[in-house]
Amino acid sequence: MRVVVTLNMVGLNAYRRDNFDHPTVGLAIVVALAVWTGLAIWLYHDRARRTPALLLADLAIVLAAMAVTPWVKSTEFNATIPGFWVMGALLAWAIHWHWRGGLVAAVLIAASDLLPRSEVDQGNYGNVFLILIGGPIVGFMCASLQRMARERDAAERAAAAAEERTRLARAVHDGVLQVLAMTQRRGAAAGGEWAELGRLAGEQERSLRSLIRQQDTVPAAAGGRVDLAGALEAMATAHPVRVEVATPGGAVLVDAHVVSETVAAVRACLDNVAAHAGDGASAWVLAQAGRDEITVSVRDDGPGIDPGRLGQAAAEGRLGVVSSITGRIEELGGTATVQSGSWGTEWELTVPLA
Amino acid sequence: MVRVMVVDDHPMWRDAVERDLQAAGHDVVAVASNGREAMARFPASAPQVVVLDLQLPDHSGVQVTSMMLEHDPTARVLILSASGEQDDVLEAIKAGATGYLVKSASSAELIDAVTRVADGDTVFTPGLAGLVLGEFRRIADGPADDPRDQLTERETEILKMVATGMSYKQIAARLVLSHRTVQNHVQNTLRKLQMNNRVQLTRWAIEHGLDEGPA
């Protein structure tokens, strides 16, 4: 840009050389300004050389060239010698010291342009006005850009750090899981106290694996929607019944209220397993997600419910199961059905997604 | 007796699996600790079943699966994974693995799985069944002109039962089917998944003009 305004300055001054009272001095000034331009481009190129001293010198040269104009040309001069060349120093100040720098440089340049003039016409006024507006605005935009660049850099650094942490966590988790699984296996083979140790290792292994899966599906909990799969995993891990959760893979983002009610209903199913299916019973939870509905199946391998017992309980006014499972799901506009057989008991909870 | 190759980067596991398999009368023809070694030793040892840990240091479990099956389509890959990373498991199954087991499975379960996979059967965990159901659900909810196969109602029903921990025997009893029929249905779901994966790849190739060859 400096090159363009310098060419413009040199060209204009050459074109109107007859306006000069002292052409030789005028030529010397133009040459000096051109040389300073080359020097300034080189000096500004390296960040380390962009010192306040350089900026002050840059502006001082501009102001000096402006100040000598009435003497070198005539007091009735039309355009100053530097003309639009002042832009270089003005923008340098705006870039370096933002809107304050832009404003200070603009005011100084405007003053040096207006003061020596005998009369101010509309063109002079327009130029000064543009300088006064342009300096601070360019400065302000530079500040914004620099801030945005800083923020972007920080965000990129944070993302890279998080990615690296995740990678390390994966490696650590995998190692821990391997050892837990191995302890479980060896313990079961050795029997006795070792079997108990193995069983404990197995429990830890299951909860760690479930935690990792929850972490995998955590990302976008946006707009009041939360991940049903992760919530089911978290609840099942904490539940005393031995539960295995199967999910469709990835996050199942559903309205937070639907998630909390569905999870509560599934918890009631599992409580029921703990109460009726005996100590050794296991349960399985399967979550499925379609475009317009979610389905959660809960099965246990207990002896099953005697057909009609639920109805009988309802008739006797013992509505525990009905209100905590069926009630919750019906509130959400869904259906809860239960089947039972030699293979255990299975609840199927279906909730429409509005 | 099944000829088995064990691929796992943890020596502790490799040895344990090898010992269990040998104790059960199987022949461990090769071991490897990463994808590169596995691919180098696979052709010469020609195993019937590869017991493969997905978490290899060169992150190549899925790639190793497809390369092995490309080289020898009669080989069977049984995934043995500690953390059960969902995406990787599903990708490995799409690439042609026919069994998946978590490492906490007992020795008996592992040996049973190796024998079944060698016989051409599929070994599912409830977690894998859930993933496969989810995958077909995503296909169903996708664009209507999707050429990929859907599951039949029966297949979906059976897969749901596998996902809630029911054994083939229990499923057969509940649906009044033979054990063999249940097995076939489960096998079909995997076959469809793998076929769909090929369709997808082919379509991708056509879309990118890779089917025309050098002009």
TrEMBL record, chain B:
<dbReference type="InterPro" id="IPR016032">
    <property type="entry name" value="Sig_transdc_resp-reg_C-effctor"/>
</dbReference>
<dbReference type="InterPro" id="IPR001789">
    <property type="entry name" value="Sig_transdc_resp-reg_receiver"/>
</dbReference>
<feature type="domain" description="HTH luxR-type">
    <location>
        <begin position="144"/>
        <end position="209"/>
    </location>
</feature>
<keyword id="KW-0238">DNA-binding</keyword>
<dbReference type="Pfam" id="PF00072">
    <property type="entry name" value="Response_reg"/>
</dbReference>
<feature type="domain" description="Response regulatory">
    <location>
        <begin position="3"/>
        <end position="118"/>
    </location>
</feature>
<dbReference type="GO" id="GO:0006355">
    <property type="term" value="P:regulation of DNA-templated transcription"/>
</dbReference>
<dbReference type="InterPro" id="IPR000792">
    <property type="entry name" value="Tscrpt_reg_LuxR_C"/>
</dbReference>
<dbReference type="Pfam" id="PF00196">
    <property type="entry name" value="GerE"/>
</dbReference>
<dbReference type="InterPro" id="IPR011006">
    <property type="entry name" value="CheY-like_superfamily"/>
</dbReference>
<dbReference type="InterPro" id="IPR039420">
    <property type="entry name" value="WalR-like"/>
</dbReference>
<dbReference type="GO" id="GO:0000160">
    <property type="term" value="P:phosphorelay signal transduction system"/>
</dbReference>
<dbReference type="GO" id="GO:0003677">
    <property type="term" value="F:DNA binding"/>
</dbReference>
<protein>
    <submittedName>
        <fullName>Unannotated protein</fullName>
    </submittedName>
</protein>
<dbReference type="InterPro" id="IPR058245">
    <property type="entry name" value="NreC/VraR/RcsB-like_REC"/>
</dbReference>
<keyword id="KW-0597">Phosphoprotein</keyword>
